[in-house]
Amino acid sequence: MSFTVTEAYPRVRYEIGNTEESYFTIPNDWTFFEASEIEVYVDGKQLTTGEYAVSGANGDGGGTVTVLNPVRKADVLLRRDVKSERTTNFPNSGPFDVEVLNDQLNRLVLAQQDLEAEVGRTLRFSHFSFPENVNALGDVFSRQGRILGFDNSGQPFAGPTVEDVAWLVDTARERGFLAAEFGPYI
User: Fold this and answer.
1) Residue 122 in contact with residue 133, Cβ under 8 Å?
2) Nearest C-alpha neighbor of 75 from the set 26, 34, 21
3) Nearest to 158 by CA among 171, 169, 142, 174
4) Which SS3 state, helix, strand or coil, does residue 147 take?
5) Is the pTM for the entire model greater than 0.70?
6) Tens digit of pLDDT for each residue in 43-72?
7) Would you call 37 helix, strand, or coil by DSSP?
8) Phi-psi category of 73—alpha, beta or left, where left has phi over 0 and alpha has psi -120 to 50?
9) Which residues are within 8 A (CB) of 111 and not within 5 positions of it... i.e. 6 or more apart?
10) CA distance 30 to 151
11) Sequence-separated (6 or more) residues with CB below 8 Å from residue 149
12) What single DSSP character describes residue 157?
């Protein structure tokens, strides 16, 4: 099957209110080959493939996710994750199937889009910065309302709560350790 891959951001989020929802639209600019390339998260928890069904695979673009247990008052995230794999070997000489080549090239472009989206959601250091490898931060619930900190080796961590830092600043200001002209945030 031959198709054109357009630029697409492979994540879409739905904020569900009081009404139960079980059908979620996969954007038309998403191309994917297999249902297993669509991941579903409800309030940060990844659903297993038995908890939802996907229609629209095979490179047509778009589709639908059906969550088997309807959700309400939740955040639902659909994420495309095309595996970076080479599934075809081409002969060194002679004819080969151009459609298979196009599918393989499309798969690589889709995987590259997915990777670019993941990298765009990360903390990044300059090319001349250390450490070489950075530890992952915890999930959203372990980071909420916390100050981002860096330890002595430069690794990020979720620090004290914003309320604790505000209390410390207010206390230091009350006791004369901070001048009032530093403003409300320091």
Assistant:
1) no
2) 21
3) 142
4) strand
5) no
6) 989 999 899 999 887 666 788 999 999 999
7) helix
8) left
9) 82, 83, 84
10) 39
11) 156, 157, 158, 159, 160
12) E
